[in-house]
Amino acid sequence: MTQLNNILEGRIWSRRVFFALFLILSGQAFAALPLATIQDVIFNADGTRFNGVASVEWKSFQASDGSIVAAQSVSVTIVNGNLRVRLVPTANASAGAKYTVRYSSGGRILFTEYWSVPVSTVVLKLRDVRSTATGQLLGSATTVEIADVGGLQDELDSRPVKGFGFAPNRVMVAGATGALEAASGSLTDCVHVDGTAGPCGGSGSTGSSGPGFVDFEVPAGPVNGTNTSFSLAQAPSPSSSLQLFRNGIVLKQGLDYTLSGNVVSFSSGSIPRLDDIIAASYRLATAGQISILQNGTLVVPQVICSAPGSTSSSNLPTVIGTCTIPASVLQVGDRIEIQYRVAHAGNSSITTLILKWGDSVVATQSLVALEAAAVGKISVSLSSSSSLYATQLWGGRSAQVSSAGLIQSGLGQLTPITLEAQVPGQGTDSVMLQHFSIVRYPNTMVP
Counting beta carbons within 10 angstroms of the beta carbon of residue 31, is it exposed (0 to 12), middle (13 to 18) or buried (19 or more)? Predict the structure, then answer.
């Protein structure tokens, strides 16, 4: 009986030992991986709390205890700025282990960052886990490479840069190379969508499309008591806008005189006598046309365009300055004076400047290597058929070159005058039009 009891007691003890060992081994087999808690509050730039989703992704890695963590992702909803997630530490895991976190709101990914989660029994903030793309914590990094910030390189590539003609406190326009250049023109001008500037209130590089005005012009023609025909510099538009003065008294159109285009014909009873003073004021079709100003009996030269231009480093012919003379402004006998001043940066040779009157090439100038400046002065004398031009071109290192020739004047039509630049060695040299001016000397006779 005693022997039987000993045997039974031994079996019971063995079962207890086996059960205890089972519990110990089972606890080790089913023990969860250690996790770290990341919890923080995220704000928008305007101070409001962020609402959206943080998508946390990772590639397969080996945890510190040897466990294999399979590649996967988890979406964490961020409500009223509150972010909380528990993750396996990667700081002491296999090489390259990290988390990629993409923040999105409204269906759009707003930004991406990387996490390296350390082992911690306390709650971690975002500043404790944010890292570079290589897993180095930002808090301990001495240098952050551009590639470490997701999307930064693309943003930098799309960012405009300062051009050669950049200037503070001016409207910026995109130059030929995409760089930011200061818009050229007077500080009182308006900038058009093509980057040109002109008087406010209209469209096109010539300025306003509203009416222009001519004040107290002295009609051309001898005042001798017998001459009945006088000509105006331009045709009034509308014709009824003409106010014709004789010794300060307004004459009546249709009674004292008639108007045909720009020709005034006096009736027999109103013929100006010797020493009479005749003056005319009228409107023009567009403000882009230049008013005739008088200084006594002499016509003052008229500045049609006078402004800096743009910059180019393109190896293709590129317009760096332009001015369009409106129709009906140019008259037979007028002289047009064109001047430009160009700055050159770089050491490539044979940088070319081309001045065109409409489609006709009037002047071609080559800038030799290290030539920092170039100047051109062109004069065009207008006639009814072909007009004569004369050029004077020189630079900081090159001697003056002169030439002359004939071109079609294009009277009565819009006349674009353009200066083009062609720079060899794309991106190494550049030219900047520092000033471009066009002045009209109207046809007039001193009485």
Answer: exposed
Supply the DSSP symbol for 392.
E
What tokens were used for 158?
Answer: 């799309």
**355-394 per-position pLDDT tens digit:** 998 888 999 998 877 788 899 999 988 887 788 889 999 8
d(CA 271, CA 223): 9
Helix (H, G, I), strand (E, B) or coil at 192: coil
Cα–Cα distance, 145 to 180 (Å, whole number): 27
> In the CATH hierarchy, which top-level class contains the domain 36-157?
mainly beta
41 within 8 A of 81, measured Cβ to Cβ:
yes
For the chain, what are the domain ranges? 1-31, 36-157, 212-285, 302-441
Q: Which distant-in-sequence residues (6+ apart) come within 8 Å of 47 by Cβ?
A: none
Q: How far apart are CA 91 and CA 129, in angstroms?
A: 9
d(CA 180, CA 158): 13
Going by their DSSP bridges, the two strands 180-182 and 172-174 should be labelled as: antiparallel
Could you tell me the pTM of the whole model?
Answer: 0.38
Distance in angstroms (rounded) separating the CA atoms of residues 219 and 228: 12
Domain 302-441: assigned CATH number? 2.60.120.200
Instruction: Please determine whether the domains at 36-157 and 302-441 fall in the same fold group of CATH.
Output: no
Interval 216-273: pLDDT, tens: 888 988 888 899 999 998 889 888 999 999 988 999 999 999 999 889 999 998 999 9
Spatial CA neighbour of 74 closest among 43, 53, 97, 90? 53
Name which of 279, 13, 312 is nearest 173 in CA terms: 312
Supply φ then ψ for residue 396, to 5 degrees: -70, -25
Is residue 347 a contact partner of residue 370, using CB atoms and an 8 Å limit? yes
